[in-house]
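Quick look at the format.
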Amino acid sequence: MLTHAGHHLVVGAPLGLGKPHRVLNALCSRIAADASRRLTILSALSLSRPRAKAGLERRFLAPFVDRHFGADFEDPAWFLAQQRDALPPNIEVQEFYLPSGALLGSKQAQQHYASLNYTHAARGIAARGCNIVVQSVARGPDGRLSLSCNPDLTFDLIDALAARGLPRPLMVAEVHPDLPYVERGASVDAGFFDIVLEPAPLPPLFAVPRQPVSLAEFAIGLYASTLVKDGGTLQIGIGALSDALTHALVLRHTRNADYRRILDALWPGAATSSLVRDTGGLEPFEHGLFGCSEMVMDGFRVLAEAGVLKRAVVPDAAAQGRLDAGTATPADLALREAQGEVLHGGFFLGSRDLYRWLQRIGSANSAFRLRMTRISEINQLGTDDAPLRAAQRRHARFINTTMMQTVLGAAVSDGLADGRVVSGVGGQYNFVAMGHALPDARSILLFRAVRESGADVSSSLLWHYGHTTIPRHLRDVVISEYGIADLRDQGDANCIRAMLAIGDARFMPELAAKAIAAGKLDRADPPTWSRNTPEAIDAALAPFRREGLLPEYPIGSDFTPVEQDLVRALGLLKRDTATRSGKARALWGAVWLDESRAEPREDAAIARMGYDGREGWRETLERKLLRAALRATRPD
């Protein structure tokens, strides 16, 4: 590699799972020791194990990290150095998507961040003169290789370099034995790569720990599930809101009576809503959904296993139209049988359950057909084949998450008002634009109505903000835990009214006053938001959590039952001790706590944290604080 690239190595590496950490770490180490050389890494989403602070956090996290990721997992050295602003002067890392919030304090990461749509990333990497590509791959039984988790940019990059008249980069593959072999769209001859490394052994694949889903998040997922049309197309991302939506769709399909009971408690008017009737539905999925998403994650696995994800598309626009219209010819049916595909993706990332599922369905002759392919084929309609993609993506629902919304419909998803980047644009803008470009599609943005930082609670619905990801002229459907705002084609006053109606009651009077002062609203009607409280969400949905219909971990958990108790208790303790007065109350209660009344489940949690009764006074106080939180969050 050093011989090929000369004194300046410009290395392209896939985002997320497809980065071979050992290869890149070795390059970083070699270049750092040689001031005559330079290394530029062009990538996105570098994955690193979570690092705990001292005290309770470390006691909980350290054993989990060792068990979940493996003691021999190798973190990306460049990422850890960036966090400390410690990259040497001859190494630069430029990424177009960052792990959420992980590099807010890094000058090096913030200064070299490239704000790009996902579909423009290959162009941007080519413009930097990429001369080496390193990528993790899977090997198939016939000796062929698969780009597996990351065909998203590699093919597009090679084409972009050729279009600029630049030579093909040195292609370096590292075969990972645990990567699923995906045939359709991602497989290549072994000669596609110039160097193929097969080290043994390699650490396990990075698996994203699945997080709990709150009742407010379930409310958002339930609302969104009513706008998904049977026989349509679904795009979703990763995280608690996507898990909540996935679970709601499964309930709608497999336990429809229970689904309607939950909806009636949350939204009594759902069954008669014209928006639901025209845009989605409440019925089970007779025809099923086609998945088309830049990211394939656990939600698609769960939807496939539940029988929701089952609508196959074919590579012929006319045949696709006849299949959807119910006028298919025998040849159309034969084409669907032979070539129909149920899920298209650009990259995948998730749990080990996801990787095992992908391993089962990745072959070309699998009954469930998956295609992993270029991001340019997923995140946009293209030019020559736009009619085919439009035909396949009928009734598309592009569902994404945002951090903040303005009452005029702009979305803040990737950065802060001062210019610092939280994550990146990724494909969100692409999907929002496609939601407007396709005649029967909708862009749906999900957000939590409030932001919590310790004891501080603030509104995520704002009058304006110093940065936006999605401009207000692309406003469409917005959903919070308090309902749905349909903003498409609305004037500003109606848009503001709809957004105020889904905001938290504590903050809406001030927002309404700003709208009135700006002349955008004549008056506001308080009843539209007066019922929007966390207590109302709990009252509506808590009974269904007790029934087991809205579990904390709807798509599975990587935590043991004891660790799940601890996650709940540690979250409460963090909130309760965020202020001086709260800390004083918690400490006072802990001092007088009777530890002799402990139940076996509580003792198991204390033991899991490594307490054995021989601690000093400071750790004894920690233990008693934790016991109090465990009792306060004990399941009924």
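Next, a different chain entirely:
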Amino acid sequence: MQLQEHYLTLRQHYRDTGIHLPLSVTLEEISSVLFCSKRNANFLLNKMVVQEWVSWSPGRGRGNRSSLAFLREKNSFLMELAKEKVVKGDLSQAQQLLHNYELDAAYQQEFNVWVQQQLGYHLEQKENIAIDVLRFPFYREIKDIDPAYVNRRTEAHMIQQIFDTLLVYNGTSGKLEPQICHHWRSDESLMVWTFFLRKGIVFHHGKLLTAEDVKYTIERIHDPINGSPHRWMMEKIQSITVVHDYELRIELSEPNGLFVYYFSTERLSIVPRDFELLSNYKREPVGSGPFMVESNDESQLQLTAHTHYFKERPFLDRIEIWVWPDYDGEKMLFVPPGEMKYVPHPIVASEVEAHYKALDHIEKGATYLMFNLKKGGPQSSFLFRKAIEQAVDSQDLIEKLGGKRMLPAAGFLPARSIESQRTHSKSEAKRLLIDTEYKGEPLKLYTYEMRTNELNAEWVKEQLASVGVEIEIVVVPVEELKKAEVMQEADLILSGEVLADPVELSLLDMYEVGNSFISSLMDEDLREEKDQLIQQVFKAETPENRLLYFEKIEELLKQRSALIFLYHTQQSILHHQSLQGVTLNTLGWADYKDLWIERVSL
């Protein structure tokens, strides 16, 4: 513990004693408050005297009391210490200090405004060179940026900034475009695929990218020992041949016209063949993308421009993502004039000043409830699930909880939801429950740690209680919930999916990935029907036909009342008009390589 925190501990304990007012104490009392020996307590007090934080007159002789006076007011002292933490890049520890030592509300507001001023765009000088820095908050650490195991949208977005893929999908044209690979082809059978790589691509640690790295990337996911949830994309591979440094041939066991699309996803981002030999490779991975990881800990993720990027060097020099626990977007809505802010995921992007711009759209994907059909219990009854479906009114959820909850969902694609309407009736829910064997036993509703999920779960619990169904909410980290044994403890799971382009590939991944909540909770009959429709997806020749089969899977889930769609979310970004190149990708973030600052006088 730092000396400042020892002072705050004393000040907190003797909070009723005013500044400069002498307090009669013993060294034993001080040592008890500071949880240390009398000798160490005396040492700490003397250091505080030198700093002019306290005056201290030790008592002379046995039984004589000492005199202590505080010279620094707690709130201003605490805020100074918290600011020091922030300047050093430790926003989370600063917030923890303010919580532990109970900063008064007025000072907390002042601190929040000061933090806002540290975020946004800043111009720094480094060795007489101007450095463009963009800082913004995020509510949690970004711990694992390993493409082979990615399962959250934020990690997927960061992977797209740090790594490159063989191909990229152009959402506007609906076509694949070259990236690491400058050309590709397949034979007529769609079973032999050949990729031709660009020369001169350099990983962040200086090594040249070759076909051996691509082979290693594929084999790392393909090997069942590694346990990648994305292995399904590679499981039909029979052989991988490095023809030479810049040519790779892959042979499949059966035709697959979608196979080439897999190589446009962040899951198959190309990693160097010494990837797992690098220290801390999950938090600080090495790729070949436009940004490289400078540091990544519990306080912040720092990205710097890859100056040898084979395409265009990023315009910004550094991105700093500060960990702000419980950040939800509202804290940044107050934007002082003249401050250049960038706020990912604000709660209300429309309430902004004239010199700010807001981008938003309804995301592809949906929040949902999935029943565990593999587990015995009330949820195994079709009538019980129909009753729950009748009790859960998504419009009520949106109206009561608000935020980014925008549109009641009837499927994973918003277009279908706009065209569909679902009726709800609690009286019908109660009637259906009478025909079941439900005896009031509690159901375990699992979800993963995120404020939005927890609020949603509480709302579901309240709605179901109104029709006589008891819910026990269990909140665990998402990494824990993805474990099969934990998943199978749940009676139902509340989660959500975000679909990146191409949508049909995201849907395929959602139904096929090894730790999917939806597929993992299906019973054998439902899984078999789903798998038959997936086989038709592989045979379909156009995206439109593939989407038709995915619609049939959705209808199958709804007919069985296995899944209840809740709502679609609004994705949004708020940014100062001087920040250029801002677009909103399908994951709800801006691609950092396109951002640049137009320096204007305000």
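The longest strand covers residues 563-576.

See the schema section for token definitions.
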